[in-house]
Amino acid sequence: MKAERAAEISTIVFAIAILVFLGALSFQYLGYITHGYYISSNEKPIPIKVIAKQYVWEFIYPNGTVSYDKVVIQAGKPYVFELTSADVIHAFYIVQLGLKMQAIPGYTYDLYVLVNQPGVYNIWCAEFCGPGHYTMKGELIVVNATG
Amino acid sequence: MKLRLIDYVAWVVTIAVMWVLFLWVGDFGLLPYLAQSPVSQYVENLWRITYVSASGVFGVFMGSLIFLSLRFRYVEETAQRQATRTDYSKIVIPILLVSGVSLAYAMFQYTSNLMEFQFDFGILASLMILLFAAFIFVVYKQYYE
């Protein structure tokens, strides 16, 4: 009976240890992602305004240029998407980064982004926002810093 | 009924097979479609730890379920039935496994973008669940009907 008891206790302890470890790691990563701690302090993130509307993503660059459903950034450079909504609640989801944040009318949230690999990545609305929700797609285009 | 050394070895092997199978189905916790970014690295780290941990739980429970179902089956009834009926599990199980693996392999040949990958992955996961369900169904039909 002792062996069974030891197995039972070790199972519980192992499960607790894994969950605590995952919780602590998630908490640490959440801090990095939310506050952009992974960006070195001598680099200032470039702000890009993102306004979600039924059913389009509007991007406003620092020089005032506006684009719809497409945003171009440079690889290896930090950016901060200042995210808000003009109508209903949306969610800004960059699929290949595994990164998602809600866009809520009246609030602006900062979403720090640093991509090291050039490419075209999907932006989807991840919150049902109306009958055209499924058409609310965009692209994050990451180009080489030199080109 | 006391377990012998060979039983313990079979138990551990069954658990190990289920563990490796689970890892293989989930690409060993890797997310190859993610871009190179600190954020995606965080996401992948968390996913991999969660998936590998879950594989251990799956291996122990599914492996034990299969092993114990077979090891402690009702022997007398089985002995009577074996004389009169066809052992259809010897046909059905290999067909299920081979068709499942073949179908999964065929599907992955046509995966070229993210949405297809996600669709195929969902189909594959459903298929594996179906295979396990079919496997368990066959085992139970064979020994407990």
Automatic annotation (TrEMBL), chain A:
Q: Which PANTHER family match?
A: CYTOCHROME C OXIDASE SUBUNIT 2, CYTOCHROME C OXIDASE, SUBUNIT II
What are the record's GO terms for cellular component?
A: membrane
The record ties this protein, via PROSITE patterns, to: COX2, COX2_CUA
Signal peptide stretch: none
Q: Which residues cross the membrane?
A: 12-32
Name the Gene3D superfamilies for this protein. Cupredoxins - blue copper proteins
Q: Does the keyword Transmembrane apply?
A: yes
The principal localisation class reads membrane
Q: Which InterPro entries match?
A: CcO_II, CcO_II-like_C, Copper_CuA, Cupredoxin
Task: Show where the Cytochrome oxidase subunit II copper A binding domain sits.
Answer: 43-147
Q: Of which family is this protein a member?
A: Belongs to the cytochrome c oxidase subunit 2 family.
GO MF entry, a single one: cytochrome-c oxidase activity
What are the entry keywords? Copper, Electron transport, Membrane, Metal-binding, Transmembrane, Transmembrane helix, Transport
Where's it found, cell-wise?
A: Membrane
Q: Does the keyword Hydrolase apply?
A: no
Q: Which GO terms describe its biological process?
A: ATP synthesis coupled electron transport
Give the protein name, as stated in the record.
Heme/copper-type cytochrome/quinol oxidase, subunit 2
From TrEMBL, chain B:
Keyword Transmembrane helix in the entry? The reply is: yes
For this UniProt record, give its keywords in alphabetical order, as a comma-separated list.
Answer: Membrane, Transmembrane, Transmembrane helix
Annotated transmembrane regions: 5-26, 46-70, 91-109, 121-140
Question: Which domain of life does the protein's organism represent?
Answer: Archaea
Protein's recorded name: Uncharacterized protein
